[in-house]
Amino acid sequence: MIEFADQVEGRYDRQTLISWWDQPALANAQIIVAGAGALGNEVLKLLALMGAGHVLVIDFDTVSRSNLSRTILFREEDVGKPKAHIAKERLHEINPEVDVRSVDGDLRTAVGLGELRAADVVLGCLDSVNARWALNRRCLQAGVEWIDGAISDFHGSVARYSPDRGACYECTFTPRTLERFHRRYSCPFGLVSSQAQDKTPTTAVTSSVIAAIQVQQALMMLHHVEEGLRPGERLTVYLKPYRMLTDRLPVNPDCLAHDTLPADIPVTAYDGALTAGEAIEVARTFLPTVDSLCLPLELVVEFRCDTCGAAQPVLRYREHVLQDEAMCPACGELRTPTCVEAIGRGSALAALSLGQLGIPRREILSFSHDDGRFYLQFGE
Ligand SMILES: [Zn+2]
Ligand SMILES: [Zn+2]
Fold first, then answer.
1. Is 194 in the same domain as 328?
2. What is the dihedral of CA 213, 218, 223, 225, to 10 degrees?
3. Using CA atoms, how far apart are residues 328 and 335, in angstroms rounded to an integer?
4. What is the rounded distance in angstroms from the CA atom of residue 111 to the CA atom of residue 363?
5. Looking at the structure, do residues 206 and 333 belong to the same domain, yes or no?
């Protein structure tokens, strides 16, 4: 039985002994973790142990058996279930004080730019050039810093990317990265190849080392400690043989990613049932010359077979349509997708709702008008 209140040990007693530690700053932080694979599991585990206040985890994938050698949050019985939701459940077991939200979806479309803008830091725990490219673009647009973790067999790296200082992820693109980036879209009409992506040889040791450094970097940024990586710097850790190396990544003056949204974007209510046409009308109450809604990605609206003439409505972003799906079920020939990038006032597609278009709460939608773009956030 505990007799004196001051003898009750708090969960965070040991870490709060650190001179620069600010537990309330950590408890108030909004942290987004993109990817709940090997790196994401370790990052999430550490954030929960240390009492990070608000964590949003996003992943589009389900747990597979080969994940289990590197993912502390997943169990045998989780195979086939969404990674993000399972991770959320397990984090709640580790530390019920952490407010965790999970999104089972694609970071290009399922987490609003407004959500990213509200985050203090984003941790990238991704395994492909394409996903990193997309996260980099969205973080820079939203004006939020992100920490990229990457792992290989016996080495890995952590890089810090900032919207206004230093090189970004896209600045580091070499001809080889570009080739890997475009391989995903090498199918006819730029549809996504259904071939499984390259599998990286790696172990739980490499992912835990790299994830730990990512979280340490996030802690230093949340505490405004200057000793970590500076924007545009990358730390590479080799585990066989041991070696560490920090390099400052060169800024590419022609990089197209440094395009931050304006600071003063108005906010209106989100309703998934609101149609694109109605959204345009809402935007017109702010700026009467608005005439169309720009979609976050190219939307495939239909497949049409040039051989047999059959047509099929699709309504999914091109990024999510596999090459195999383009084959005509009637005659087996390759069908042509009809894609749209924007929905005009009065177009038939204006009847589609934000929910049908997969536009999440807190997304910042872009509308076009005579002189350029108008931005409006849907959802507080
Ligand atoms: Zn750049
Ligand atoms: Zn056909």
1. no
2. 50
3. 6
4. 7
5. no
Degrees, nearest 5: CA angle 126-132-138: 120
242 and 116 together in one domain: yes
Count the residues in the chain.
380
Q: Which residues pair with 151 in a beta bridge?
A: 156
CB-based contact 192:319 (threshold 8 Å): yes
Span from the CA of 313 to the centroid of ligand 2 (angstroms)? 14
Q: How far is the CA of 117 from the centre of ligand 1 (A)?
A: 18
Summarised one tens digit per residue, pLDDT across range 272-315 is 999 999 999 999 999 999 999 999 999 999 999 999 999 999 99
Q: Are residues 209 and 308 in the same domain?
A: no
Residue 107 lies in a domain: yes
pLDDT in tens, 196-241: 667 888 899 999 999 999 999 999 999 999 999 999 999 999 999 9
Residues contacting 198, CB < 8 A, separation 6+: none
Q: Ligand 1 centroid to 139 CA: how many Å?
A: 12
Domain hosting residue 178, numbered range = 5-248
pTM: 0.94
Distances (CA, A) of 260 to 14, 29, 56, 144, 162: 40, 22, 22, 9, 11
CA of 373 to the centre of ligand 1 (A): 22
Q: Are 43 and 57 in contact (CB under 8 A)?
A: no
Whether residues 69 and 158 share a domain: the answer is yes
- Asked if the structure places residue 149 within a domain, the reply is yes
Ligand sitting nearest the alpha carbon of 163: 1
Task: Pick left, alpha or beta for residue 190 (phi over 0 → left; psi -120 to 50 → alpha; otherwise beta).
Answer: left
Looking up residue 102, the CATH number of its domain turns out to be: 3.40.50.720
Is 99 among the domain residues?
A: yes
Ligand 2 centre and the CA of 326: distance in Å? Answer: 10
How many domains does the chain divide into?
Answer: 2
